[in-house]
């Protein structure tokens, strides 16, 4: 995957330094704050290290990732900030999805998560799919629950789950996306500038946006 430009990397280092020295709303060692829930840099580091160790030895995960990204299978020699961004995006989105379900008045029973896991197992293996997404196998249940949550919410919005191209399904997917964005916006998500900025519209953490406010607070808030 392409790396960040030198300019952005320097900005990230400066911003991270501001985070370490500030007494703002996030504590030192915080990767993200999501509705008051803290994801630490140390836990994110361990998550990505676990992922890399498992991913390199899983040919199915490598192939799934290559097919979905258009990149050749395999890893570089060093952990990249892109890997960290991808993992953190998912960890943030898991938390947002739980709030979305509550706002939609939808419960996600364990049975639905079980069925989602079983479906993932039929389509390459839940562990391998989770690795291909950028998280270690231990997060397979979290990924299954995220998928199950989207399924349950879209079903409430009228989706035809047997026809992904149905106008009802397309409309439900749009409603899910809009509710997800509104929910994320209301959760005041803060990302350590080292990792970038959360974009709810893209459901992802993008490149660092370095400006005066982020330098002063040590956070990048959506």
Brief summary:
The chain has 222 residues and is α+β, with helices and mostly antiparallel strands.
Would you mind describing this structure in some detail?
There is one protein chain. The chain is an alpha+beta fold and about 220 residues long. It has one domain (about 5-220). It has helices spanning about 5-20, 40-55, 60-70, 80-105, 110-120, 125-135, 140-155, 165-185, 210-215, and strands at about 30-35, 35-40, 190, 195-200, 205, 220. α2 (about 40-55) crosses α4, α4 packs across α8 (about 165-185) and α7 crosses α8.
Q: How does the major sheet shape up? A: 4 strands, antiparallel
In whole angstroms, the N-to-C terminal distance is 25 Å
Low-confidence regions: 1-26, 212-219
Number of helices: 9
Q: What is the total tally of β strands? A: 6
Mean pLDDT figure:
81
Structural class by sheet pairing and helices: alpha+beta
* Widest sheet, order of strands: 2-1-3-6
**What percentage of residues falls in helices of 4 or more residues?**
55-70%
Tell me the domain tally.
1
Shape descriptor reads globular
Q: Specify Rg, calculated over alpha carbons.
A: 18 Å
How much strand content do the residues show? 5-15%
Order of helices and strands: HEEHHHHHHHEEEHE
């Amino acid at each position: 995957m392409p790396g960040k430009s030198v300019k952005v990397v320097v900005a990230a280092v400066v911003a991270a330094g501001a985070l370490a020295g500030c007494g703002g709303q996030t504590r030192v060692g915080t990767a993200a704050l999501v509705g008051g829930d803290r994801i630490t840099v140390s836990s994110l580091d361990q998550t990505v290290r676990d992922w890399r160790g498992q991913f390199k030895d899983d040919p199915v995960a490598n192939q799934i990732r290559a097919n979905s990204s258009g990149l050749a299978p395999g890893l570089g020699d060093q952990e990249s900030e892109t890997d960290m961004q991808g993992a953190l995006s998912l960890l943030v989105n898991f938390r947002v999805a739980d709030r979305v379900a509550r706002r939609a008045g939808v419960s996600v029973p364990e049975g639905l998560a079980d069925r989602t896991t079983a479906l993932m197992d039929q389509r390459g293996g839940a562990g391998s799919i989770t690795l291909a997404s950028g998280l270690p196998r231990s997060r397979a249940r979290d990924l299954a629950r995220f998928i199950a949550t989207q399924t349950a919410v879209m079903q409430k919005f009228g989706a035809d789950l047997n026809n992904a191209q149905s106008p009802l399904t397309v409309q439900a997917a749009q409603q899910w996306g809009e509710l997800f964005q509104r929910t994320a916006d209301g959760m005041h998500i803060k990302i350590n500038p080292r990792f970038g900025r959360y974009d709810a519209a893209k459901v992802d953490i993008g490149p660092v946006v370095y400006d005066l406010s982020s330098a002063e607070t040590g956070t990048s808030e959506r």
